[in-house]
Amino acid sequence: MAAIKQGLEQKLQQKLSPLQIQTIKLIEMPVQALEQHVREVLNDNPVIDDDAPKRDDEPRDVSISEVEEKEQSGGSLEENYGPQDDDIPSYNLHVNNWGKDERPEYNTFSVKQSFTQSLLEQLGYRNLTDHQRTVASFIIGSLDDDGYLRRDIESVVDDLAFRAGIESSAEEVETMLKVIQEFEPSGVGARDLRECLLIQLEDKKRTPSVDNAIRVLTEQFEAFKNRHFQKIMARLHLSEDEMKAVLDEIRRLNPSPGGQIDDSYNDQAQQVVPDFRLDYENGQLILSMPRFSIPELRINRKYSEIMETGRLSDSRADKEAATFVKQKIDSAKWFIEALLQRQNTLQSTMQAIIDYQHDYFIDGDESNLRPMVLKDIAEITGFDISTISRVVNSKWIETHFGIFPLKYFFSEGLENSEGEEVSTREIKKALREMVDGEDKHNPLTDDELVDGLAARGYKVARRTIAKYRAQLDIPKARLRREL
């Protein structure tokens, strides 16, 4: 039988403090989510008051520093209300990151009318029964973001019955779908690409080229999808000029009609609120964070009086009430300290990115983007790579040449023929230029793109070309061929 041994073992283990955990969570938030979170925190803390007095004769709230000054004459907060673990610096805070309105208008970009709202509005103009309108509304709610109905009719009928408690039939759903397919943008409510394009062609003024395009999509869609134009011309007896006119008609159509309108009910997903602003003035790059500033916390007059009473009273109830207020004040101070650390971390990280990519930020020329990875900025700022990753995620910057996600400025590097490291973004730009300038009757193969980039001084393998093509949404040479 093995002997049982007992001994002591010492381990060094690092644990995150509550302040560090809170700071990490705040760093991950984009500015719009942060502003909402600040408001929620202040609303949940009864001690903090961010409302200004309505009249000049109303008693005003008290700043934290004023409370602490009063404490000096009768002992510290710690002595009066119990020991505290840490001494956090106080900040005279008042919520000044919002305007006079209760809810500020966001400086958002690319926010349009809701896709669903637009369709429901058009549905309202149709002369339908309440039952038909309910069925049509359900179908609209079943559309994908790009405007397609990718579910079969029977599934919609079943969903109407089981999820909405509405009895319908395949014929009624089909009829209501036809109504929706008459809405704008043209092509909405289609069940596949072929139907989407045909709906748009049927809405156009009938011309020989439109009629031929309808024939091509109706009778030769598979051949068209695979760009077998010669086969189509032979089967439908079309001349080369007629086939070119067909291609011109189809190119003008929109394969994703729902993509024209953003579903902006989801603020987080659709609204872009830049966390940073970069101005170029008198040859200098000036970084600012105009959307958010550290708020000033003020203690509600009623709670400051509770603290004063607890400081002077011998009553246990008064002491307990004052302790409660003190805990709420400390909680607010922790939160403000985390906000301050967040702002300093974001500012330092963004400034490091600007310094690293200085030439690019002058005019936005992509060829000036240097290869840059998270580790590069981590070494400059002294922050951990995971911290840089949290800063970069979901953050945007408004510059004098456009609005960009911070992820945009990061890319790997490859060596050129002279042994210099160049950004993969620069190589992708060269690849795009070659494809845009190619002979569309005889597009460049991946091997020819490799040779072309080599002639420009970029050493890139064929598999890398295929990867970059996919990232740039450039199809294979066969699918780029035009008549």
Kindly describe this structure:
The chain is 51% helix and 6% strand. With 483 residues, the protein is of the alpha+beta class. Among the domains are: 18-103 and 295-335, no CATH class; 115-180, no CATH class; 413-480, Arc Repressor Mutant, subunit A, CATH 1.10.10.60. The strands form 3 sheets. Strands 3-2-5-6 form a 4-stranded mixed beta sheet. Strands 1-4 form a two-stranded antiparallel sheet. A two-stranded antiparallel sheet has the order 7-8. A hairpin with a 5-residue loop joins β7 and β8. α6 (130-141) packs across α8 (170-180). It is flat and about 100 Å long. The relative contact order is 0.11.
Structural class: alpha+beta
Based on Cα principal axes, name the global outline.
flat
Residue share in β-strands: 5-15%
Computed CA radius of gyration, to the nearest angstrom: 32 Å
First-last Cα distance = 86 Å
Short recap of the structure:
This protein has 483 residues and is α+β, with helices and mostly antiparallel strands.
Essential attributes:
483 residues, Arc Repressor Mutant, subunit A, 4-stranded mixed beta sheet, two-stranded antiparallel ribbon, 23 helices, flat
